[in-house]
Design brief:
The complex is a heterodimer of chains A (183) and B (358). Helices cover 36% and strands 26% of the residues of chain A. Chain A is α/β, with parallel strands linked by helices. A seven-stranded mixed sheet of chain A has the order 2-3-1-4-5-6-7, with helices on both faces. In chain A, α2 links the parallel β4 and β5. In chain A, α1 crosses α5 and α3 packs across α4. The two termini of chain A are 21 Å apart. Chain B is an alpha/beta fold and 358 residues long. Chain B folds into two domains: 182 residues, Thiamin diphosphate (ThDP)-binding fold, Pyr/PP domains (Rossmann fold); 110 residues, 3-Layer(aba) Sandwich (Rossmann fold). Chain B is 42% helix and 19% strand. Chain B is built from 15 helices and 14 strands. In chain B, the strands form three sheets. Chain B has a seven-stranded mixed sheet with strand order 3-2-4-5-7-6-12, with helices on both faces. Chain B has a five-stranded mixed sheet with strand order 9-11-10-13-14, sandwiched between helices. In chain B, α1 crosses α2, α4 runs parallel beside α6 and α13 packs across α14. The chains are: A alpha/beta (183), B alpha/beta (358). At the A-B interface, α1 and β2 of A face α9, β8, α12 and α15 of B.
Chain lengths: 183, 358
């Protein structure tokens, strides 16, 4: 099993940390992982993306041009990466701020209204975990127990009190996942 | 006991330095390798092993601090990225001339000049053909995985002390920035002064009454003596070429075509090999791990019946010269590269295989 994922959105949305939690969860589940950020002269508000690969075998290229899954969090990233999803692959996106919705018919498309839910919860910081929950519902590449371990490993100890709420956000994401186009 | 961590390549370099008992790191920050200095600083290595970490005032100062530390028989290192490494070339030539062991890490970025902060492999010539003056060689290790960034630090010091020569780890922005799983070792103690005194009869350990002065220099005004120095260096390089060649092959047994690539380009090419083989094209990958000494003989033997070789590198064509020399131009050798910080995609490599070799 190899899952090649691009996560793309605005800087400051938690794109890199979502990828890191996913990667660490993979490590805890004894998978090979790679986490490759775009590291241009980016800043808060600019675009940011990370390629995360989870595999049972040694990973070849950490940078890719086609993905099994794209997790898209803003319009610029939709414009850039919709066409990069492999036929039959998955596109998960937050509809907030999206004006041109994905149109491909040869991939599975899902919405996770994470911005809306996170603001209902009163804490935008859970936004990325809601999205992650939606993705894991479609593709359970790591088990929930390892997400918890991944959070423990990737969050500083002073933030460990937030882990239960983060896990709740993951569950919430799986509940609000909305299929748009399924093959 | 081995411990598993998720780390950036740069962090793995720093972690390995602390854990394998390096005595001193002297460096100046530059993207895309600043995490080396940052990780060293945040880990408080002085409390763990007594390792000294110092941010120098410049790259020129860093390499000369390394020169000084190496004279004492200490395990010392620096790291930088392309423009900073250019500033260190004088020091590297002096250290090669004075036969001093040290580790220099280059996490290459796009050039020439100040260039970009994105990944590149355009410092190949500078590293393996001698960026500084004089007939010298740098033993050069090219990691392709974060685990190798970790492992090659200790290996670099082994080779540096075995051959009394500076060793370069030639990495790039991809391997520096990517996070992967790393198995780390327990902390090893640094060498004691007594150990250094016993092991290294050349090291400056403090003159005592029972032994003559030791002089470490790269200066010999008498040409006949300087020629002897050069002959000694060349004979040492020959030994190194005979013993230290390292490379990895993947799916070469039945291959009609070969890709030769190192570092991150080898990773990208590996993906291209997977894709090409799904389409029925028999491609193999040869990944040089030591860039000097170069695996010329291995490449010649493995590709003896090849229909063609593609060199994939993030440069305008540097590695390709060594590959052409290796096969003595008996088979077609083509180049595919992106440069200036652009990363080639696996699809582009497959396309290049088709357009250039078939």
């Amino acid at each position: 099993m190899t899952e090649e994922i691009i996560i793309a959105g605005f800087g400051g949305q938690g794109v890199l940390s979502m990828g890191k939690i996913l990667a660490y969860s993979g490590v805890m589940q004894n998978k090979e992982v790679s986490w490759m950020p775009s590291y241009g002269p980016e800043m808060r508000g600019g675009t940011s993306n990370v390629t995360v690969i989870l595999s049972d075998e040694r990973i070849s290229s950490p940078t890719l041009n086609a993905y099994d899954t794209a997790i898209i969090l803003n319009q610029q990233s939709m414009d850039k990466f919709e066409s990069s999803v492999k036929p039959g692959g998955v596109l998960v996106y937050d509809p907030n701020g999206i004006t041109h919705h994905p149109t491909r018919k040869d991939i599975n498309i899902y919405q996770v209204p994470a911005t809306e839910k996170a603001s209902e919860m009163g804490n935008m910081k859970f936004f990325n975990m809601i999205i992650l929950g939606g993705f894991l519902k479609v593709k359970p590449v790591v088990k929930e127990e390892f997400i918890k371990k991944g959070l423990e490993k990737s969050l500083p100890v002073r933030h460990h009190g937030l882990i239960p709420d983060n896990l709740k956000a993951v569950t919430l994401g799986s509940e609000i996942l909305k299929p748009i186009n399924t093959l | 006991m081995k411990e598993l961590k998720l780390m950036k390549g740069n962090e793995a370099i720093a972690e390995a330095a602390i854990r394998c008992g390096v005595d001193g790191y002297f460096g100046y920050p530059i993207t895309p390798q600043s995490e080396i200095l940052e990780h060293l600083m945040s880990e408080n290595p002085y409390d763990k092993t007594g390792m000294v970490v110092l941010q120098a005032e410049s790259e020129t100062a860093s390499i000369n601090m390394v020169y000084g530390g190496a004279c004492l028989g200490k395990k010392v290192m620096t790291s930088s990225s392309s423009p900073g490494i250019s500033l260190m070339q004088e020091g590297l030539s002096y250290m090669a001339g004075a036969e001093l062991p040290a580790l220099v890490v280059n996490v290459v970025r796009g050039g020439p000049g100040l260039g970009t902060i994105q990944p590149s492999q355009a410092d190949y010539f500078q590293t393996v053909k001698g960026g500084g003056h004089g007939d010298y060689r740098l033993i050069t290790l090219a990691p392709a995985f974060v685990q190798e960034m970790y492992d090659f630090v200790e290996l670099a010091f082994e080779l540096a002390f075995k051959y009394r020569n500076p060793v370069m780890i030639l990495s790039d922005g991809i391997i520096g920035q990517v996070m992967e799983k790393v198995e780390v070792d327990d902390y090893k103690s640094r060498w004691t002064n007594e150990y250094i005194r016993e092991q290294f009869p050349w090291a400056m350990t403090g003159k005592t009454a029972d032994r003559p002065h030791r002089i470490i220099t790269s200066l010999e005004l008498e040409a006949s003596r300087q020629e002897k120095v050069n002959l000694r260096l060349q004979s040492k390089y020959k030994d190194c070429e005979a013993q230290e060649v390292r490379y990895e092959t993947t799916q070469c047994e039945d291959a009609d075509y070969f890709i030769v690539a190192y570092g991150s380009s080898a990773r990208i090419s590996q993906k291209a090999v997977e894709v090409a083989r799904e389409n029925g094209i028999k491609v193999g990958l040869i990944r040089p791990i030591t860039l000097w000494p170069f695996p010329s003989k291995a490449i010649q033997e493995i590709t003896a019946k090849a229909k063609g070789i593609l060199c994939v590198e993030m440069s305008a064509g540097q590695l390709i010269e060594d590959v052409k020399l290796a096969v003595e131009c008996k088979i077609p050798v083509e180049h595919f590269g992106r440069f200036g910080g652009i990363i080639p995609s696996p699809a582009e490599v497959v396309e290049a295989l088709h357009s250039k070799l078939m």
